[in-house]
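Sorry to interrupt, but I need a hand with the structure work. Go ahead and set the record down below:
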Amino acid sequence: MKKKNILNLIKYYAEKNDSAFRNEAYEIAKYFDKNDDYQLSEYIMALLSDANTFSPQIDSNEKKFVKRVETSSNPLPLPNSIKDNIVGIINAIGHNAGVNKFLFEGPPGTGKTESAKQIARILERELFIVDFDSVIDSKLGQTSKNIASLFNEICSVSNPNKVIVLFDEIDAIAIDRINSNDLREMGRATSSVLKGLDTLDDNIILIATTNLYKSFDKALLRRFDAIIDFSNYTKEDLIEVGESILNELLLKFKFAGKNVRLFKKILNSLDVIPYPGELKNFIKTSIAFSDSSNEYDYLKKLYISIHKNEENMNPKYLNAKGFTVREIEILTGISKSQVSRELRE
């Protein structure tokens, strides 16, 4: 056993990261078992069992194509249309409704992967992600063989109702078989995916994500019990999501002031608001790089970062867009008196 195992154990305990703590304890138990200290190993496992925990159902160290990832407890603002679908999935799985394969489709940054992590956390299941880099092989026919081995790994889990498997960006191995521009090898790969989905244990939850829904093989789409569209964000949804992201970040950056009205005006001034993933990066970078002695400097930086045209920084232009003299002062750095003179002129 290495020092890092003990340090990780203490770290995960301090962070109240129960899943990581249990898995680290499991690794320590395995170490004692391999070194013939069976009593100590069994004692640790008994403690974990008494604590209503369970051993990892897939040992990533012994698997070639999957690896465990942490679930997420971070706030995930979603529009009601998507949120209702996620709640429906959780309820269906919780009540053993006979559905276990879900496809999340939509542009990057819309919350597909993060939603899968949240579902795993809420259902108290371990989340494993497919490593497509190890699945795809340049040798003729090998990718199809690897896909078959991948599904064998998934189906060999000891307790399938404690696992969720994530095929993040499944289009890497499953695209339209009848596309004339497609490689025949990838067509065979898609056929292997179809066979794997047909033989999947009903107790194993599989969630796949894709940005290329329109290029999907129709036969593949029919294998999923439900397809959730993550592109259903209205402009109002994105402004609300942006506000939620801002509130979360302001808790970490104490020097930044809160001006929700101006923040919403900045987002509303855009013809197209970025999806949450990109939007969060804009907001976070603007706050992190702002002048800590100026509580509203991040709003100026945010406006500049999302408006590339310098004309958009003109006081008259801003005023025409509904910004007040004070708000224009914040966004441009020009004093209110100077802004007032320019507007009068």
Residues 66-229 form a domain with the Rossmann fold fold (CATH 3.40.50.300). The CA atoms of residues 129 and 166 lie 5 Å apart. The chain has three domains: 3-55, 66-229, 235-344. The chain is about 50% helix and 10% strand.
